[in-house]
Amino acid sequence: MLRIDEGFLDGLMEKAATAGATYADVRAETFTADGASAENGTEKSLFRGGGTSLGIRALAGGTWGFASTDICSRSGLRAGAAECLERAVSAARAQSRFEPVALAPVKPVRKKITYSRKVRAPIEDKMELCVRLTRTMKDVPGVVMATSNLSLVESERHFASTEGANITEEVFHVGGWLFCSATGGESGGPRSSQSVYRPWGARGGWEFVRELGPEDTALDLARTAAELASKAVTPDTRVTTVVTRPCYNSLLVHEIVGHPCEADRVLGGESAWAGRSWWKERAQKRVGSALVNAVSDARPILRHRGCYGTYPYDDEGVPSSRVVHIENGILRGFLNSRQSAAMMGVPPNGGMRSVSAGLMPLVRMSNTYFEPDPQGPRSLEEMIEDVRDGVLVGHQSIPSIDSRRYRWQINAYDGWEITNGRLGRRLKNLALIGNTKEYFGSIFRVGGPATFRLYPIPNCGKGDPMQIQRVTNGGPLMAGKAKVVGGA
Fold first, then answer.
1. Beta strands 166-184; 63-71: pairing state
2. In 15, 111, 196, 395, which residue has its Cα 20 to 30 A from 456's Cα atom?
3. Which phi and psi (to 5°) does residue 180 adopt?
């Protein structure tokens, strides 16, 4: 990896001030990545790559300018950075007709953050694991296709500003996805098929492969696909009690809490990909029952170990924090940038991230999840013991959300009927349809800490051009009322 020293970035920011920028910051990132994929127990592909990118934001004349470049060699670093600085300041001046941008204050930090474990693995180990995972899935009766992908990314990220901040952080990401298809049905009768997909991974090195246990995930995924193809039925369409598992709540909280609580969407500054927010005017008002609590918390604490949305500082040098979105059913606060924080008259809370130094940072959710009820049920059995008729909703699959994130349909590829406090028939390809206010208002039971789980989501899309970010979502078991449809 190309090494970038802090003195070079400090000097670049000094030049930004003399070039006429009232504020400027620079992000630089250099990374290496390698990985493998396999299919049905056979090697499929290997890849290895890396690169360095640099991006500069500048305020000049009161508005933003941005420029970025890829750096191919150490000799090209200085010239590329100088060109980016000139372009960023020129672009800002060209837009000075707009209302001047204000930034909420933040104390500049100078720090080097190392990832102490630094556990790597040769590419052969990655291929061996992929082959083994697909073989595990393919050996389950009924499975006809099994694929696996795995990568390890190691990067060094830099942030510096004209205010004196200079932060360097080592970051590792490990993980991939598992996919399998199965067929089933009565002998001589109609055949059915089912495909299922599940990502896995962590913000960390190869040590998390053992901790996360992808072998167990692969086996569970294959057995699920085979059972859904051979035994499961689609539910009848009806409004009923729904108990949602943490794996389903990971997408639910992502779509109807995380994205509409990003301040750029609340303020109307970013609206690509269903980017508006219905509760713009609902702050400090009730949006659900008193059992609904949701937060975004990027702090590097034990609960978030290995979570994709964990980081010490965001891409503006702001410390990460715990941001309460919904507290006892009341909408409280939003993830913000320094700019949106100034517009809202609140402190910045560390919500700005970009997937690459070569792209403008956006307000992004982090570890965003529903909080458990400290006094809630300790198990699924306790959760459903008095449910006479309902549906337990399992792993999420596909969302469909309106432009304000108010009305939604979120699919799941598996579930179970609930009858008189017990699980009944296995269900497949179902969906919940609702609107956020009514659904949150119907929540009458939330599981306790023992039912709480977090799940990696490696493909959160936002922005134009699209940025695919890694986040973590989840929560406890939850029970409410919603419309269930089959065949989704």
1. unpaired
2. 111
3. -150, 155
336 in Cβ contact with 325 (< 8 Å): no
SS3 148: strand
Distances, alpha carbon 389 to alpha carbons 99, 167, 242, 378, in Å: 57, 55, 9, 21
Q: Which residues lie closer than 8 Å to 7 by C-beta, 6 or more apart?
A: none
The letter for the amino acid at 30 is T
Question: Do the beta carbons of residue 287 and residue 330 sit within 8 Å?
Answer: yes
Residue with the two structure tokens 């609702």: 434
* Of 5, 28, 31, 480, nearest in space to 256 by CA: 480
First to last CA, the chain: 46
Q: How far apart are CA 156 and CA 213, in angstroms?
A: 27
User: Can you tell me the distance from the alpha carbon of 155 to that of 49, in angstroms, rounded to the nearest whole number?
Assistant: 12
State how far the Cα of 224 lies from the Cα of 234, in Å rounded to an integer: 15
**Euclidean distance between CA atoms 215 and 137, whole angstroms:** 9
Average pLDDT for residues 23-48, to the nearest whole number? 97
Domains, the chain, in order of start with CATH, read 6-230 (3.30.2290.10), 238-486 (no CATH)
Q: List residues bridging with 72 in a β-sheet.
A: none
Task: Count the Cβ atoms, other than its own, within 10 Å of residue 185.
Answer: 14
| Whole-angstrom distance, CA of residue 130 vs CA of residue 44 | 9
**Residue range 246-281, pLDDT digits in tens:** 999 999 999 999 999 999 999 988 888 778 899 988
H/E element, 79: helix 74-94
Strand partners, 394: none
d(CA 209, CA 211): 6
- The alpha-helical segments, DSSP class H, found in 275-416 are 338-344, 380-384
Per-residue model confidence as pLDDT tens digits over 39-96: 999 999 999 999 999 999 999 988 999 999 999 888 889 999 999 999 999 999 887 6
Of 486, 399, 462, nearest to 436 by C-alpha is 399
